[in-house]
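Aim 2 progress update. The chain analyzed this quarter is reproduced below.
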Amino acid sequence: MQPNFGSAVVVVPTIRERSIKEFLSAWSTAFRAATVIVVEDQPERAFDIDGPNVEHYCHADIERELGDLAWIIPRKTDCVRSFGYFKAWQKKPDLIVTLDDDCFPTDGEDGFLETHWRRLNEPAKTDAWVTTLDGVMPRGMPYFATQRELPCVINHGLWNALPDFDAPTQLVHSRNPTPVSWTNRSIPVGSYFPMCGMNLAFRPEVVPALYFLLMGRDYEYHRFGDIWAGIIIKKIADHLGYSINSGEPAVKHIRASNLWANLRAEAPGLEMNERFWSHIDKIRLTGATFGACHRQIAAGLRLPGAYWEKLAMAMQAWGGLFDG
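Predicted structure tokens:
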């Protein structure tokens, strides 16, 4: 299947030579017309990757390109992929996709990038009018033109095999496994959703606001970088009049991360996750672009503690990468 868009970039973080090579082999056909950016979460390249369409970066490249601002890209966390977003944005493609290196094509799934592109071009239809009566329409209600369409800027692809559960849910699910299912949907205006970076497609214009937060070994929080970034980007999309879709295309997620390690890593963030969204929800936005709104959220991020002060600085610095 030939792509029906001009260009695409796929961003993948990794620390495992075997996994990334299996990943590139499995996706070689689907990504033959795309550029694949591999962000190796190591100080230097620990292995070589072959492929004419593959770009391979490591911490040394982040330091060299960002200089004094390199600290805004966290290390020893999948959030290192934000550097890949920046490199992808520089290419001005039509489509950017990010995947984990343990996600593989689903059997029978043809046209993975094309499906993401199609879903990005499916606007959300939302009610613009509601009746004030039950079952009938009073005077003044349009007969047909009662919905508005919001253009989509992010498509949140899902996963078969192993769902993206947090550690407590994973613990319960491991003893009483139940099948999970999903359908294509648009996330309603005013609602948030648990955005997973495992299989995500987006338009380049959102990158100045799509920053996976400071996480990992150097910070008190871990495994919430994509979730909290999703809260921020949904707040901005709602304000600017864009939609976010979720559903297909799915990937086959094959590796379950360590339950107990996840529980230890997630514990500090579980309580904050209960209220982070409501803090973001209260910030008033007036900006006209994704970047301007992201900076307003950074300025309004007034949670107590050194972590939040540093995060606000990082978010402002991230926005500065796209100026000029």
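The mean pLDDT is 93. The first helix runs from residue 17 to 26. These observations will guide the mutagenesis experiments scheduled for the next reporting period.
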